[in-house]
Amino acid sequence: MNNQNTDLSEILKHFNLELTPKTYGNGHINDTYLIKTKPGYILQKINTNVFKDPESVMENIKLVTSHLREKIEAAGGDPDRETLTVIDTVDGKPYYKDDNGDYYRMYIFITDAKSYDLVENPMQLYSAAKAFGNFQNMLNDFPADKLHEVIPNFHNTVSRYADFKAAVEKDAVGRADSVKEEIKFVLDREADASVVVNDIASGLIPLRVTHNDTKLNNVLLDDKTGDGVCVIDLDTVMPGSLLYDFGDALRFGGSSGAEDEKDLSKIWFDLEKFEYFTRGFLEALPSITERELELLPFSVKLMTLECGSRFLADYLNGDTYFKTHYPEHNLVRARTQFKLVDDIEKKHDEMMDIVNKIYNK
Fold first, then answer.
1. In 10 A of CB 9, how many CB atoms?
2. 3-class DSSP state of 336
3. Residue 121: how many other CB atoms lie within 10 Å
4. Spatial distance between the Cα atoms of 243 and 303, rounded to a whole number of angstroms
5. pTM for the model
6. Which of 99, 168, 299, 313 is within CB 3.0–4.6 Å of 247 for a Cys-Cys bond?
7. Which residues are CB-contacts of 58 (< 8 A; sequence separation ≥ 6)?
8. Which tens digit of pLDDT belongs to each residue from 206-252?
9. 37 falls in which pLDDT band (50, 70, 90)?
10. Phi, psi torsion values for 208, nearest 5 degrees
C-alpha cells in the first residue's frame, strides 16, 4: 500500500461517507480498503501504472455492470450481490480523482462469499466456471465494440509473438544462447498464434465481451452453498473471444502444480479439472457457437503458450515486467507453461471427447 500521505477519510467524503477504511485483501494491482458498515463498501485506488486510462476502465465497468444488472433483475436475482455495484461520487462520477492525479472508486461489499487463490476441490472449478459462463451468456447481446481496449493487444497472440521474436532478436542481457531449446519450442508453434485472431477478423468467431483474467480468485463463492455468486475484478473487461477466458482459466486451474514449480515431473494437465470446469462453463453458456466449441481444447494450449512466451520474453529482456524472486524465476515459469503445453497437445483428443460428451449429453 502506498497511501501514507493520503487522508482516506477525505477521499471518502467525495462518496458521501465519513468512516475509517481498513486495508483489505491480497490483490497485487490496486490498493483495496474495506469500510465496515451496512452495507459495507470497498474503496480502491486504481493502479494507473497498469491502467493508463482509468476513466476508460471505469466507463467499461459501468457499461457492463449496468447491462448485467438489467439481466439479473429480469431473472429475479439480486443485482447488488450478483454483480459489482459501482458507487458514484457526490459529483455523479464513477470515480474520484484527487489533487495528486490518483483515481479512487467504490463498490458495495458483497457479504457471505469469498474468493480462493488455490483450487481446494474440483467443485470450486465447476462453480467458478458456471459463474464465468453465465457472465458471458448475460453479455452475449452486449455490443462488445462499445468497450475501450484498456490494454491494447492484451490477448492478441499474433502481436505477442512479434513481441517475443523482438525479445529474441534483441537479446538485451545475453541470455538467448542458454535457452535455445525453449525459444525453439515457442517458434515451432507460431502458426497457432493466428487461429483465433483470424477467426475473429473473418467473423467465424463472434467478438464478445471478455473478462481476460479468469482465475478462480476472481469469482466470489457463496460461504454456505459454494455456488458462484459474482464475477469480480472487471478492470480488464474488453472486446475479445470467450476462448481467451476459457483457455486462461484452465491454463491456471487445470495445472497439477504451481506456476513456478521447478520440478517439471510434478507438472501435467489435469483432465478431471478440465472436465469440471468445462461442464460448469457449458451448462451456463447455451450461446456458444460450433466453432468456439471446436476450439475449446486448443484455447487452453494457446493461452498457456502465450503466457509461457511472455515469461520467456521477459527473461530475455532482463525481467522488466513480471516480479521475480530469483534470477531464473521467469525461466522456471516459462518451462512450467511449456510442460503444460506439451501435455495439452498429447491430451487434445481426450479433451475434445470431454467437450463433446458434455455438450451432447
1. 12
2. helix
3. 11
4. 9
5. 0.91
6. 299
7. 46, 86, 94, 95, 103, 105
8. 999 999 999 999 999 999 999 999 999 999 999 999 999 999 999 99
9. confident
10. -125, 170
